[in-house]
Amino acid sequence: MKYPIGIQSFDQIIEEGYVYVDKTDIIHRLVNEGKIYFFSRPRRFGKSLLVSTLKNYFLGRKELFKGLAINSLESEWTVYPVFHLDFNGSNFIEKGVLEKRLHTYVKDWESEYGIVSDTELLDLGGRFLKVLSTAHKLTGQRAVVLIDEYDKPLLDVLDVDKNLEEYNRNILKAFYSVFKAADEHLRFVLLTGVTKF
Question: Is 1 contained in some domain?
Fold first, then answer.
């Protein structure tokens, strides 16, 4: 048996024949009984694997779920516009790194949906809202937003630089406030992290 030690990619686990403990019946309940979730767990508790599994589910990749519980529970396998933000891999101890990371995500999504970036009139949150509404309009499906390690930009500077911690907190607060304004365009939102800020 092959154990997926250190592997956080659902599709890699399935495609390469690693052991996978099937909890997809719980995932099916999660996505059908609620809309916005915050999932806080210690490191190495499977948060990133959960995000990857949800991403593949919402992308309608039915072939990956063959033989799993969710395969018999799901009948439609609808493809949704999925927006995945992962704050792993960046070091946020320098001012501006967080904005650059968010700007890159939003710019890529604007390009994907043919949106002319309106940086002079809209802040990052406003641009993200425009992406979500455009994706909904173009695909006919509400958007899915999956955010892994939402708190890393704060944890990196916690007890190191109080001013940068507050600065990053305000950037994230403004960006995440989009979810309230975008409610009609959202099918599902999940934020994972280690702590509750």
Answer: no
Q: Which of 26-35, 39-48, 187-196 ranks highest by mean pLDDT?
A: 26-35
**pLDDT digits 0-9 by tens, 84-140:** 999 988 889 989 999 999 999 999 999 999 999 877 778 899 999 999 999 999 999
Cα–Cα distance between 184 and 187 in angstroms, integer?
Answer: 8
Residue 188's domain spans which residues? Answer: 10-193
| Helices 162-176, 97-112: inter-axial angle, 10-degree rounding | 20
Using CB atoms within 10 Å of the CB of residue 13, give its burial: 0 to 12 exposed, 13 to 18 middle, 19+ buried: buried
**Phi, psi torsion values for 192, nearest 5 degrees:** -115, 155
CB-CB contact of 123 with 173 (8 Å)? no
Do 14 and 58 touch, CB atoms closer than 8 A? Answer: no
Q: How many domains does the chain have?
A: 1
Task: Report the CATH number that the domain containing residue 69 is assigned in CATH.
Answer: 3.40.50
